[in-house]
From TrEMBL:
Record's protein name: Nicotinate-nucleotide--dimethylbenzimidazole phosphoribosyltransferase
Function: Catalyzes the synthesis of alpha-ribazole-5'-phosphate from nicotinate mononucleotide (NAMN) and 5,6-dimethylbenzimidazole (DMB).
Pathway: Nucleoside biosynthesis; alpha-ribazole biosynthesis; alpha-ribazole from 5,6-dimethylbenzimidazole: step 1/2
Species, as recorded: Marinobacter iranensis
Keywords: Cobalamin biosynthesis, Glycosyltransferase, Transferase
């Protein structure tokens, strides 16, 4: 019998309504015109409700990057060769990747989880070897994963959430690494949203127009093979990747443990959409960092009713866009916690009428 991790089915906690209301009331009396700090006000209120406290803080921040290779690379859907996945895992560990630099700047912990790649990676500090298989199968011709493999990836993601919770994590960022994973994410997004590949497939690592057209045709073949099964686990196994499934497990696992998730770009948002389709009560635990330049991301954000904080034309992945947004969350909390009220500062409040 197939064994699903508990995060896939367990009831998630709900935000604390009392803390939400107290934070809303506090924002009304701070020394500023109401609404003048825009999204920063709503961020602070949301975080207060999620943490169940009057003075929220997002630190410590913990980042987990999940890595896996994709069999669909056989179809020539990426501008980079597949060995780059293994090389980038080493780059993460050696501090040379964008997310490594950003994690150091933020004072955030960073771990990398290798779920299954084609090349070999030696033992590296900060890299966990959790290989399920040497990459997924080619989703254009067969299911990318067996259901057992998908469940293993979900469980690995949930275990990462548990590690982070045990280490005092208050804000989780999930990142991705895997050559070919925008093809997998686009296929999943098309299936989840009932959209055509022509509207969601993008350049990924830098394909030209002809390359995007070919990639779209590959996704069309995958969708035709998959059929109309809308069960989230079946869709994940058929069209997903190890790292996408692990991200879904980590997102659900963090919410189950009361940890808000700052969602990165296209790949992570697709994983979040899978998780929300499985458990709709997850949605309040998600904050959205940025709008990716990958064309399918906008449709996924709309499906999640998400209002991202940044729009910088980023499409790197790794959790980099989410890391760039962390200072905004820190600022939202600092303003909420540290500003004086009108009464405290002896400043005349606005007149009603």
């Amino acid at each position: 019998m197939l064994r699903l991790p508990s995060c896939w089915t367990q009831q998630l906690p709900t935000p604390d309504e009392h803390s939400f209301q107290r934070a809303t009331e506090r924002q009304r009396v701070l020394t500023k015109p109401p609404g003048s700090l825009g999204q920063l006000e709503q961020l602070a209120i949301q975080l207060a409700g999620l943490y169940g406290c009057e003075q929220p803080t997002v630190d410590p921040v913990r980042i987990t990057v999940f890595a896996g290779d994709h069999g669909v690379c056989e179809e020539g859907v990426s501008a980079f060769p597949q060995e780059v996945t293994a090389q980038m895992i080493a780059n993460f560990a050696n501090g040379g990747a964008a997310i490594s630099v950003l994690a150091k700047q933020l004072g955030a912990s960073l771990e990398v989880v290798n779920l299954g790649i084609v090349g070999e990676v030696p033992a590296l500090t900060g890299v966990r070897d959790e290989q399920i298989a040497p990459g997924t199968a080619n989703l254009a011709v067969t299911d990318a994963m067996t259901e057992a493999e998908a469940c293993s990836a979900l469980a690995i993601g949930d275990a990462a959430a548990e590690r982070n919770a045990n280490n005092g994590c208050r804000l989780f960022i999930g990142g991705d690494m895997g050559i070919g994973n925008t093809t997998s994410a686009a296929a999943l997004a098309c299936a989840l949203l009932n959209r055509s590949p022509e509207t969601l497939v993008g350049p990924g690592t830098g394909l030209d127009t002809a390359g995007v057209s070919h990639k779209s045709a590959v996704v069309s073949r995958a969708l035709k093979r998959h059929g109309d099964n809308t069960d989230p686990l079946a869709m994940l196994a058929s069209l997903g990747g190890f790292e996408i499934a692990a991200l879904a497990g980590a997102i659900l696992g963090c919410a189950a443990r009361g940890i808000p998730v700052l969602v990165d770009g296209f790949i992570v948002s697709v994983a979040a959409l899978v998780a929300v389709r499985q458990q709709p009560e997850l949605r309040p635990w998600l904050l959205f960092a940025h709008r990716s330049a990958e064309p399918g991301h906008q449709a996924v954000l709309e499906a999640l009713d998400a209002r991202p904080l940044l729009d910088l034309g980023m499409r790197l992945g790794e959790g980099s866009g989410a890391a760039v947004a962390v200072p905004l969350l820190r600022s939202a909390c600092a303003l909420h916690n540290g500003m004086a009220s009108f009464a405290d500062a002896g400043v005349t409040d606005r007149e009603e009428g």
